[in-house]
Amino acid sequence: MPTRVKLFTPYTVKGVTMKNRIVMAPMCMYSCHNEDGKVENWHRAHYTARAVGQAGLIITEATAVTPQGRISPQDLGIWSDDHIEGLKELTGLMKEHGAVTGIQLAHAGRKAVLEGEILAPSAIAFDEESKTPKEMTVTDIEETVEAFRKGAERAKKAGFEVIELHGAHGYLINEFLSPLTNKRTDEYGGTAEKRYRFLSEVIEAVKTVWDGPLFVRVSAFDYNEEGLKAEDYAVMAGWMKKQGVDLIDVSSGAVVPAQINAYPGYQVKFSETIKHGADIATGAVGLITTGIQAEEILQNDRADLIFIARAFLRDPYWPRTVAKELRAELEPPKQYGRGWLY
What we know:
Layout: E1 11-13, E2 16-18, E3 22-24, H1 41-52, E4 57-64, H2 84-96, E5 100-106, E6 119-120, E7 134-135, H3 138-157, E8 162-167, H4 172-177, H5 192-207, E9 214-219, H6 230-243, E10 247-251, H7 268-278, E11 281-285, H8 291-299, E12 305-308, H9 310-314, H10 318-326, H11 337-340
Parallel strand pairs: 3-4, 3-12, 4-5, 5-8, 6-7, 8-9, 9-10, 10-11, 11-12
Antiparallel strand pairs: 1-2
Helix pairs in contact: 1-2, 3-5, 5-6, 6-7
């Protein structure tokens, strides 16, 4: 009989149980062609296919809490009650096929590629080709924190079971955290504790309307001598844990332009550092493509969940592919049973 490996064991957080430890990581689809942030047929087909493919948790793409917080005009949005209906349909489709549903709440900050004004903690452009953002006032910050709270409230109404705050890849929360992008001298900059304040306020605001599983994605290494490292994020992860964050989704880079030597599993060491440094659950992501890789990470306690991105773009049935590789049991959708084992 096939062996039941750790990758295919359930994982429970705050009463929400994922049937396995395979997470489809959030990946922007740039498919809101009317630029209104609403769910379209592509989203329905794309996310439902991965639920049929037996992902344990699916986290939808970066979903903007304000219109000027979009990465692009084609991003999904959650800044209006008008978005709830489409998102609720999407969660229903995913749940119908057994996936736990998550949403990544996001604000692009200085990396927004939009017409008009964009915002950031400091008025520093990402690169020579990018727009210089406006340095946020305290009022701007307060309004953005409130936008995250309202986004979480709408996510709950739409039926999502997990919320992830996007604090990685050089977007707004990441910009506040990193000394490379936050040059403020007020209560939101100057020390690690002050740079953390924006994320802290977002977490507290979200918790007023959300008591379910709460994840935060971080870029655990800035690839710059003057930037942050995994050890710095282990300290902040400890602060997040005290605030009620359940899991850190550990990515890296993109807060400033950098050359990154990406190789299979290159970010797993950051997950391991944060997990053990803060005694908090983590998710590993980044060029994890095989079941053997994923199982090694879990068996050696380097992470608690495996976040799969591009491999899921290539193969909506990646869980089945790796179950065959690991000789593990994975129950098929009943409609596919006669073809699942071949």
